Amino acid sequence: MPSGSFGNRRISPVLPSKRGAFILVLCRVPLLANRISAQSAPKRPPRVTSRRIGIHISTAGGVHNAAERAYRLGCNTLQIFSSSPRQWAPYDLSYPLCKRMFRLRAQYDLKPLVIHTNYLVNLASTNQLFLKKSIEAFRGEIERALAVCADYLVLHPGSFRGADREAGLLQTAAAIVAATQGLDLAEAGLTILIENTAGSEFSLGGSFEQVAEVIDRLRGIVPIAACIDTCHTHVAGYDIVTQEGIYQTLLRLDATVGLNNVKVIHCNDAKAARGSKLDRHQQIGKGTIGVEPFRILLNDLRLAHAAFIAETPVETPGDDRRNVEALKKLVT
Ligand SMILES: [Zn+2]
Ligand SMILES: [Zn+2]
To answer: How far apart are CA 119 and CA 218, in angstroms?
Structure first.
C-alpha cells in the first residue's frame, strides 16, 4: 500500500440505525489498562522502515487509544479486536471515538488498520442456531469495521465438525455472502481476509488450497483476500525454516492464493514443532521458526505491499515493543 495520504476516504457516520447498539455496550477495563502513559511518548517520531510493521494492540480505554499505543510502540500499522475476542460483546465504537481514531491514524500514518474477528464466530458450523448467531456476529464485525474505517477484517474460515471439509468451505463462503448482504464493502475500502490456520482436527484453512478455495468462491462478490500466519503455516507442516523450504512454500502460496492476494502476514514465531498442528505463538526469533525466515519474508519484494503484524505474547513488560523492533531490524 503506498504511503502518504488516506486517499479519498473520509470518516462518516456509517449505518446510523445500527450504531446505537454499539454505544450501549461499553467495554469495562481496569483503570490502569486505560493509561496510555504506560508507554512513554517518544520525543521524536519513531523510526519506520520501508515496510508496514505493527502488532496486535489493546483498545482498552477506547478504540482511538490503540492508535496512540501503536505509534508509541514504533508501529506504522496495527491490528485490533472490535469485540471481546472470546465473548459475544462488541466494543464501544461510537462515532466520536472512530473519528478520533481516524485523525490519529492520519496524523501518525498508521495503515492499514486490521481488525481480527472474534474467535467464537464459526461460519462453517453445522448447528443452524450457532450458524445464525455467527452470521449475525460477523455482520456486526463488518459493521464495526466500516464504522472505524478499517482496511481489513481477518477471519478464520471456521470448523467443519459434523460435516466434511468441502461442505465446510462452501458453508463458510455462503455465510460470508449472507453476512455482507446490503453492505457496500468495496465502496468503503474494506476487504475480508481469510486466514490460514494450524489445521488441527476440524478447522478449515490448514492448507493454502483451502484458503484459496474460499477466496475463489467469493471473488467478484465480496472484496476478499488472504492473511497468512507464519506460526500456523509452520505448525500446519509447511517448511518455512530452511532457505529452500521457504522459497518452495512461497511458490506454493503464489500458485494457490497468489502472493498479490496476501495483504497481511501475521508474524509469529512458534512454540510447537513444525507439523504439530499446535497453535502456540512465540516471540520473534525465540521459537521453532527462528529469526531468519522473517528476514526473508520482510525483504521479499513480492510481499512489499503486505502489512507485517505480530501477534506475539506479552509475557514480560516490553515484549510488544521488542517484537516490533525485532521485525523492523530485519528490513534491509
Ligand atoms: Zn494470526
Ligand atoms: Zn494463531
So the answer is: 21
